[in-house]
Specification:
Strand 4 and strand 5 form a beta hairpin. By secondary structure, the chain is an alpha+beta fold. The radius of gyration is 19 Å and the shape is globular. It starts with 10 loop residues before the first helix and ends with a helix.
């Protein structure tokens, strides 16, 4: 008979493991907008189930087209573009749109296009 004694991990190790685990919210989460001199940005965190659907669509090999991310349930005003895949956390979608974009039409103001 072999006895295996479970050892409790130190709380610091547990915290590191928890930090390394992906965060899947209960509902889609939207970040606040942030910007640089050309674009405004935001990120969207998908639920685990929606992330699986996203993987079926694009296999994390390409960014999503607008109709694809909208079909997953992501709701945003017009003009946002999924521009990059964050490989460590592909369930976090990175979006940007040009500064001065009209959220009702998705069109960029003429003076902003000339920059």
């Amino acid at each position: 008979v072999v006895f295996v004694f479970a050892r409790r991990l130190p709380s610091a190790v547990c915290a590191l493991i928890a930090d390394a685990m992906p965060h899947y919210p209960e509902e889609i989460e939207y970040s606040e907008k942030y910007c640089d001199d050309k674009y405004e940005y935001r990120h969207v965190i998908l639920t685990k189930a929606i992330a699986k659907d996203m993987y079926r669509i694009a296999s994390c090999k390409r960014v999503l087209e607008e109709q694809e991310w909208r079909s997953l349930g992501v709701q945003q005003s017009y003009g946002w573009v999924h521009y990059e895949i964050h490989r460590p956390e592909p369930h976090i979608l990175l979006f940007r749109r040009a500064l001065g974009t009209d959220p009702g039409t998705g069109k960029v103001a003429a003076q902003q296009q000339r920059r």
